[in-house]
Amino acid sequence: ALKDALKKPHVRGRWGEIQLKNCVELAGMSEYADVSFQDVNDEDGKKLIPDMVVKMPGGRNVVVDAKTPIDAFLTSLEATDEEKRNLEMIRHGKQVKEHIKKLSQKSYGEIFQDSADFTVMFLPNESFLYAALETQPDLVEYAMDKKILLATPPTFVGLLKVIRYGWNEDKMNKNAQEISNIGRELHKRISDFVETYVDIGKSLKMAQDRYDTGLKRLNSRVITQAKKMEALGAKSHKE
After folding, report:
1. Among residues 135, 143, 186, 168, which one has the least CA distance to residue 27?
2. Which are the contacts of 8, defined by CB distance < 8 A and separation ≥ 6?
3. I want to staple 67 with a disulfide (CB 3.0 to 4.6 A). Which of 33, 50, 99, 162 is the partner?
């Protein structure tokens, strides 16, 4: 039932999209909202639909297109003899190479501003790539020559993690500038507070000195007179 379902193009496309989203979550890129699914038209009005556009620091973009070359691959698994299996594996390798050729002709790099000079061709299963390499050993070199980067889930997660590291560095650099600005403002506010606090201390010391002077005068000039009045009987009920 699964094989029958995957033979339908729209089901294969949906599977590839789900695998892409899973890779994004595994790489921890979702929280940064660096991935967007969108439709783009070229100058002739022809619709180009990259499955994913990954945003990088500095405004750069990496275009990702998912491909699921599965027809010949499934047929090779169902083959009852080795010769038929080999023929289907050869056909599978050619299918993958044809996908690379067609993807390179879309020229995503010319349409998306500030995009990387390559397009990622995402294969949702590693077996698709390994099977193709059996009959097309030059597949990777062929793809690179066409400015296509072949990626399976593990390698794509690795690529996304590298991009995420770049975002973290970018965020740290921006935070460093913000921290510097906040630090200068904090230093100014601490200085203002210390200055005011020192003035309060000076005022308290001045008040204490005046209190001590007043107390001395009270004892030496006022209390002595009051005691003389007490001795003469001119007193209240308090000492």
Report:
1. 168
2. none
3. 99
